[in-house]
DNA sequence: CGTGTACTGTGGTCAGACCACACCCGTCGC
DNA sequence: GCGACGGGTGTGGTCTGACCACAGTACACG
């Protein structure tokens, strides 16, 4: 019979996935207790725990010890953490080249700002089927204000920068893009910080970045998709080239032929 | 002291991530045996196994029992499987709306074919820094030939369709996009199949899809980025609208107010 | 009626045991 | 001398049982 050859924890994972797909489990629901799940599926508790651990890292469930309504494993479906862990580790393991991460981020963010600009059309929207009239960018603007503080360290500035770019993705309303952008961003966080330390003049660079941010937001507000897209492209390509001493689309330096 | 309050399996995960980042671990390397790892880090073997399970699902390692050089846990960094699992489960758990998945796929694939068309410029490339001259699309073309077989079932056709679209991403050479496209595609595989069964005329639709595929490839070959992009957009939007009875950018029908 | 304490069930962790497996190497037979 | 065969050894895979910390709950007590 099929299924017997699968590893025990895979059986658990598939069972839970089937419950999700069939609607027996929905966000907010409690999973059965680990011991009960083990008994139901005929596997050991440790196998159940391995499956639950995977689901937790992937952002599908949240676990809490103790008793009461908030205890146990609860379906949450928050993809951000899982995507970040996946991309961070793949970059660490050299499965994802940093340049590919940046290129992908560039594509997604350019599309996001172009759509935001399109949706920002003052009158007549994109039609009655338009996603959401006038996406909320007040949070993004507030982040830009916070970045004007003169005594920010590189790390603080970059943390706000991350939040700003992420807020644009959030404003687009696309859950997949939001989570992916969060993952891409966290994957290269270390590189962005390392690059900032090697810059000739941080004050000069950060001033330029601030100005570019304002320009992007202005282009969105003025409903100019192509301008917004172009500004994002030069913003990201510029920072990459400045911190890596080569343009984004160049071949990386040949690996040492040791 | 920090780190003590973290859960045991997180300690293992962080330890391995640190080894990857520092270069102590690289693709192809063996991880220490589970029992040794547990002893080194002062945790139980079950905690080590939970961490390794996560790494395995994320595509970071491959495990094999037995003895010899191929046994044990080996760093592999194959992001496709992990991305697929993550997106499939997030769609199942309603963290990712299907429409957002399709929209994201549309953005990425449009960018991919546009870049392929740009790189297909017959002479003078994109300069000495160009990614790779003339990306290899023979595999993509062969898949289209295979899709001409008249006796294909819906499932077989869609499987080839998945491979075709994935081959385009692969041809771009971008690891992140390739893995992401694989994940997006596997996440909506079930919906694509269910949609195919509800079509008025599968023969008619599949014939149209075949023609559109040829057109996309032709646009790439003729180095026309904008045409390739437009064809991809209408290809994906068309299939979505046909199988969901509404355009991709429309609001989904209001949920039942039960 | 309020308060505090024991109880119960949860996830978190560990230790130990057994299994199947695959390689390695020594022995045995030719 | 050489090949085949068999046990030895170490691996991941799994299960069992136990203990802990924790948080809510029920009940007895004042």
Automatic annotation (TrEMBL), chains A, B:
<dbReference type="GO" id="GO:0003700">
    <property type="term" value="F:DNA-binding transcription factor activity"/>
</dbReference>
<keyword id="KW-0804">Transcription</keyword>
<keyword id="KW-0805">Transcription regulation</keyword>
<feature type="domain" description="HTH gntR-type">
    <location>
        <begin position="6"/>
        <end position="78"/>
    </location>
</feature>
<dbReference type="GO" id="GO:0003677">
    <property type="term" value="F:DNA binding"/>
</dbReference>
<dbReference type="InterPro" id="IPR008920">
    <property type="entry name" value="TF_FadR/GntR_C"/>
</dbReference>
<dbReference type="InterPro" id="IPR000524">
    <property type="entry name" value="Tscrpt_reg_HTH_GntR"/>
</dbReference>
<dbReference type="InterPro" id="IPR036388">
    <property type="entry name" value="WH-like_DNA-bd_sf"/>
</dbReference>
<keyword id="KW-0238">DNA-binding</keyword>
<dbReference type="Pfam" id="PF00392">
    <property type="entry name" value="GntR"/>
</dbReference>
<protein>
    <submittedName>
        <fullName>FadR family transcriptional regulator</fullName>
    </submittedName>
</protein>
<dbReference type="InterPro" id="IPR011711">
    <property type="entry name" value="GntR_C"/>
</dbReference>
<dbReference type="InterPro" id="IPR036390">
    <property type="entry name" value="WH_DNA-bd_sf"/>
</dbReference>
<dbReference type="Pfam" id="PF07729">
    <property type="entry name" value="FCD"/>
</dbReference>
């Amino acid at each position: 019979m099929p299924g017997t050859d699968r590893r025990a924890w895979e059986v658990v994972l598939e069972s839970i996935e089937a419950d999700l797909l069939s609607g027996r489990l929905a966000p907010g629901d409690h999973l059965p207790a680990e011991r009960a799940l083990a008994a139901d599926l005929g596997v050991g508790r440790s196998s159940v725990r391995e499956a639950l651990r995977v689901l937790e890292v992937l952002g599908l469930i949240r676990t809490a010890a103790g008793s009461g309504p908030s205890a146990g494993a609860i379906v949450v479906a928050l993809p951000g953490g899982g995507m970040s862990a996946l991309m961070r580790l793949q970059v660490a393991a050299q499965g994802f080249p940093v340049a590919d991460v940046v290129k992908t981020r560039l594509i997604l963010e350019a599309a996001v700002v172009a759509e935001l600009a399109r949706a920002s059309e003052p009158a007549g929207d994109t039609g009655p089927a338009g996603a959401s009239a006038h996406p909320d960018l007040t949070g993004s603007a507030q982040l830009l204000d916070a970045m004007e503080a003169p005594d920010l360290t590189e790390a603080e500035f970059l943390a706000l920068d991350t939040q700003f770019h992420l807020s644009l993705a959030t404003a687009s309303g696309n859950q997949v893009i939001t989570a992916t952008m969060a993952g891409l961003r966290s994957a290269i966080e270390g590189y962005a910080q390392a690059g900032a330390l090697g810059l000739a003049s941080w004050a000069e660079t950060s001033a330029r970045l601030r100005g570019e941010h304002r320009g992007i937001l202005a282009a969105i507000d003025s409903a100019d998709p192509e301008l917004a897209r172009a500004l994002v492209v030069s913003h990201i390509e510029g920072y990459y080239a400045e911190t890596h001493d080569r343009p984004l689309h160049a071949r990386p330096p040949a690996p040492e032929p040791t």
